[in-house]
Amino acid sequence: MRLHAKQYTEPIYDRLADYHAELERHPLLLAPRLSHQALYEFSRRIHARACSSRWSEPDTAGWLLVAETLVPVTFGALAAATARSVEDMLAIFGPYAAPVVEAGMIEAWLEMRELLDGS
To answer: Contact at 8 Å (CB) between 29 and 23?
Structure first.
């Protein structure tokens, strides 16, 4: 028998809306000034958590709801900082770093595709 989900889902979506509102007011998103290392650490933590096998299915569903909804907001707000970090890497390491940046992009793309394709 299927539960009437609204009584359970409504508080969940209300909490998600609260998280979203709080995120939009976060000082980091209002004036994104992250270093390359901070961006890397943020991405690494998200990836590590997403790949963890210690969770129950409901825990995973809750985590993914927040991550998949709010991480794009975060990365959208940090796009300029991310672009600056690439420019910083090229300024520090010179033009030979461009293919290395592209290799990182390819690796991320393939990993994302692998996760999406269930491989």
So the answer is: yes
The tokens describing 29, both together, are: 């998103």
Cβ-count burial 26-49 (b if 16+ within 10 Å, e if not): eeeeeebebebeebeebeeeeeee
CA–CA gap between residue 60 and residue 9 (Å, rounded): 15
Question: Tell me: the pLDDT tens digits for 9-40?
Answer: 787 888 888 888 888 887 767 766 666 666 66
Two tokens at 103? 């290799």
**How confident is the model over 37-90, as pLDDT tens digits?**
666 676 777 677 767 777 788 887 887 788 788 878 877 777 777 777 788 888
Q: What is the DSSP letter of 31?
A: S
Judge if pTM exceeds 0.70.
no
Residue type, 113: R
